[in-house]
Structure formats: C-alpha cells, structure tokens
Amino acid sequence: MAAKAAGALPVVPLSHEPLHERLHAALWEAIVSGQFVPGQKLTVRGVAEAFGTSPMPVRASLSRLVAEGALTQNPNGTVIVPKVTRDTFSEVMELRAVLEKRATILAAPNVGQTDLAQLRESALALREATKNDDIIAYLQANRALKFGIYEHAHSPVLLELIQNLWLKAGPMLRRLANDLPNMGHPECPDHVLQYIERGSGEAAAEVLAADILTGMKDILSSTTVWEQADGEARG
Amino acid sequence: MAAKAAGALPVVPLSHEPLHERLHAALWEAIVSGQFVPGQKLTVRGVAEAFGTSPMPVRASLSRLVAEGALTQNPNGTVIVPKVTRDTFSEVMELRAVLEKRATILAAPNVGQTDLAQLRESALALREATKNDDIIAYLQANRALKFGIYEHAHSPVLLELIQNLWLKAGPMLRRLANDLPNMGHPECPDHVLQYIERGSGEAAAEVLAADILTGMKDILSSTTVWEQADGEARG
DNA sequence: GCTATAATACTGTGATCACAAAATGCGCTA
DNA sequence: TAGCGCATTTTGTGATCACAGTATTATAGC
Questions:
Q1: Region of residue A8 (phi > 0: left; psi between -120 and 50: alpha; otherwise: beta)
Q2: For the sheet containing B72-73, what is the strand order?
Q3: In DSSP terms, which residues pair with A72 in a beta bridge?
Q4: In which element (H, E) is residue B80 found?
C-alpha cells in the first residue's frame, strides 16, 4: 500500500514540521493516552535528552502544553503532569457534557450516510474493545467516534474547547479505566448514531451528555485513586 | 497608601515574576483591549526590541499566546493578530452565552452582600462609560463586572474557558465598538444583579446570556468592518 | 544517631549565535 | 511600463552558553 517506489524508505513524507511541533504532538498523545503518571515532573533537559534534541524545542513544547492546560507549572516553574482532584474531574466532565451536547446538536444535521457508516465502524470497535477490556483500544475508538461526530459541527472554536477539556481529563481516564471492570455503557454510541440518523439531534445529544455524566459518576463513586490536592506532595 | 517606609521607591513590589510572564500579561492586555490591528504581524525580534528584552522571553510569550488562541500562527510560523470573521465571531459569542450562563448560575448562590456592593460599583462605572462613550472604560468595567460574578462560581476550568473566549473576541470588540453609537443595553447589568440578589440565578443567567446574544446581533448587523477570511490577504 | 550546615548538582530563565527558508526590494529585460 | 529574476534582508528555528535560585546530598558537629 505504501512506498510507491523510488527508494521505498519507511520515513513517511519526512514531516517537514518544526521539531517543537512534532514534540508537542508526541507529548500530547502521551498525555491524553495517560502514559505519564500524575505528579511526574518533566524537566526541559530531561525530555530533551529522551528525545535526543536540544532543550530549546522542548521548552517550546512544554510551555505550549502548559498553556493548553495539558500540563501544570508549579510556582517555581517546574512542569509536572497534573494530578487531577475529584473537583476538577467533576468540573471537566460536566463541562464536557455541556459542550459536547452542543456540538452534537450542531453536528447532527450535517452527518451524511457515508459519515454514519464510518462512525458505525468506530462504534463497533468501541464495543469490541469494551468486550476485550482493551483500555487502549477503547480510548482510541471512543475518541475517533466522538470527534468524528463533533467535526461535523463545523465549529472550530467549539472543537478546540472540547479538545482542551479532553486534554485535562486525559491523564486520569487511563488510570481510572484500569480499575473499572465495566467501563461505560456499550450500547450508548449506537443509540446516539440511531438518533442522528433519524434526524433528532437533540435526542442524540441528550443521550451522549447523559452518558458522559453517568460515566463521571461511576468513576467518582467507584475508585480510590484520587489525589488529595493538585499542587501538593508530588512524590 | 503605598510605600510603607524604608526607601519609598515607586517600584511596586518589584514583581519577581519571570520576564516572559510579564510580557505575556502585557500582550494579553493589549490584545484583549484591542490595541493591535487585526492582521498585524508580531515578529519575535520586533516585539523584543519594543520591550527592550532579548528575543527569548518574547518567543515564549508569543507561542503561549498562540496556544491560548489569542494570536494566530500562519503556516510559515509568523505570528499575527487574528482577523476575526463573522462566522468565528458568532461562534465565540454563542459559546460565551452558553458558558457564561452556566457560570452565572453557579455563581449566584455564592455572591454575598459585600460582593454585590462591589459589583454594583462596576455596574455604575459601566453605565457612566456608556453615557460618555468611553470605550476603554466600558470594556474595562464590563470585564470587571462579568468576571466579578463568574469568579464566585468557583470553577477554575470554566473560568479559564471563558477567558479563552474573551481572548478570541477581544481583538475586534474594540474596533467594532468604535462604530457603535450605543453599545449594549446599559440597564442589563442592573437586572442581572437584582436577580442575583433575589436568589434567582437562573433568571440572572438568562438575562446575561440574552444580552450577549443581542450584543452579538447588533454588531453583526450594524457593521461593515469584517474581514473576508482568516488567513488571507494579510496586507 | 540525629540534626544542622555547607557544598554540589539540578533546573528554569534569559542571552547570544548560527542557519535556512521566506519575504522583500531592486534592477534588468522584453 | 509591466513582468521576471536575483540579491539582500528579515524571520523563524534550533543550539549553546551563562547565571541564579532551589533542591538534594554529604558531611561535620552535638
């Protein structure tokens, strides 16, 4: 499929993006998929060495991630992976419900049959992942499905805000998911897609938002891994 | 009031914040209050020279402001003050209505009598500014009043999202305000505060959100200064 | 053995340097 | 005079250096 000819090197289009951009993408992925432990501190030189670059692009990436809320910076400037408290988690999830509800309402009229077919694939992958308790696949499919819907809202600002919230929720979803025997309600995505297909975006949005909130409550009530405070005891 | 003794130098507490932090604050203010013309490009070296610093902290500030959405970065990396299109403006204002409504509902129960008195001062200043057609004072009082309310929501994430939206809307509010003979509805803030005092946060939120939306419509229908596209013809 | 102190390493911050790509301006030609 | 091509300058990007504040650790004293 790949490697048309002329060398056939496995280098992809040799992304001409600046280094700090690629670093940002890499760190973003790592954070959203929860590959960092909350409280872990990321030093400029440390990350630079890990990536084999100079400290400079790392500095740019980290400060950008801090600005995006993906990382936290304590008073002395050290950048750490945020420990999310119960309060913050609730806040983020409730805001997610509000904004993603809106995004779904806006998107529903613009979802065509082709899009629906594609979305159903994600929904299927989601159910598979749930059945297999595959957290990684679950989170990935979940993101593909949700943003696959939201992008049809044609609201870049809204999309950006939602991504921002996901970024804030990301570091712990992974951790928490480990504790959950049955994560989420697998049939929910199908209902959402059905409602969208029938043209009742309101109902779809309602289901989706409710799912987010019940997921939140499940997590809040089930687990014991919460940190006491955001900026304390970073051991 | 100030200058306890021991020198009495007019240096304020000699803010020990890092340079890039102060630069960020300065640029933030300048952007929100619309002191930059949309499309204007901000070069690292240029700003550095203007502030009398090295390019380094400027680089940090600019990239952070880009991450926050206050500035735009076109493909080649140049940072420019975003030209806001009608679509983006509508989107931002509608999202403002949604989020600030929520913030008001959350805040209302927590607003005490002392807070109310303080808020009434801002409302008064707002009315004064409107009467005098003083755009600068208007925007300042408006911000003081609104965020004076929202901070009682005790929702840092929500507050951050709202600030983000203000940042996106800022660059043009100022410009547009120049064209408007009568900006906004001066009695609105008073109604909001009255409702809050009576304990009906829902009603207050409703009034506030409606004010945002009517303001948006006023601006959309009145003015002619809109740019055609975001990333084009940056002359 | 414990604590206080001093030395060391670490880390964030800012400055300067170097390089490549893009934009700009100028001159030449048709 | 309009269009094209080249040279200069600007500008973003990355690297390295320097410095100050902080945390850590080792050591000496009680």
A1: left
A2: B41-42, B79-80, B72-73
A3: A80
A4: strand B79-80
Residue from B193, B205, B212, B203 nearest B111 by CA: B193
CA distance A187 to A31: 28
> How many Å apart are CA B45 and CA B40, to the nearest integer?
15
CA dist A22 and B110 (Å) reads: 44
Contact B90, B109 (CB under 8 A): no
Residue A129, both tokens: 């992942």
Whether the CB of B144 is below 8 Å from some CB of chain A: the reply is: no
- Using a CB–CB cutoff of 8 Å, tell me whether B157 touches chain A: yes
Give me A4's structure tokens.
């048309």
Nearest-CA neighbor of A18 among A46, A53, A44? A53
Whole-model pTM? 0.82
Confirm whether any atom of chain C, the nucleic acid strand, is less than 7 Å from CB of A44: yes
Output the CA–CA distances (angstroms, integers) from residue A207 to A141, A185, A221, B224, in the order listed: 18, 11, 21, 41
Å from B76 (CA) to D2 (C1')?
30
Query: pLDDT tens for residues A197-219?
Result: 998 889 999 999 999 998 888 88
**C-alpha R_g of chain A:** 19
Distance CA A102, CA A95 (A): 11
- Mapped onto helix, strand or coil, the DSSP state of residue A112 is coil
Query: What does the pLDDT read at residue B232?
Result: 39
The count of residues in chain A is: 235
Tens digit of each residue's pLDDT (9 = 90 or more) over B50-66: 999 999 999 999 999 99
Q: Is any atom of strand C within 7 angstroms of residue B18's beta carbon?
A: yes
The b-or-e profile of B17-48 (16+ CB within 10 A means b, else e) is: eeebbebbeebbeebbbbebebbeebebeebb
Closest residue by C-alpha to C1' distance, nucleotide D15: A54
Asked if A160 lies within 8 A of B59 by C-beta distance, the reply is no
Which positions in chain B touch A165 (Cβ < 8 Å)? Answer: 157
Higher-confidence position of A222 and B158: B158
Asked whether strand C has any atom less than 7 Å from the CB of B50, the reply is no
All residues of chain B having their beta carbon less than 8 Å from the beta carbon of residue A60 are: 59-60, 63
Res. A168 pLDDT band, cuts 50 70 90 = confident
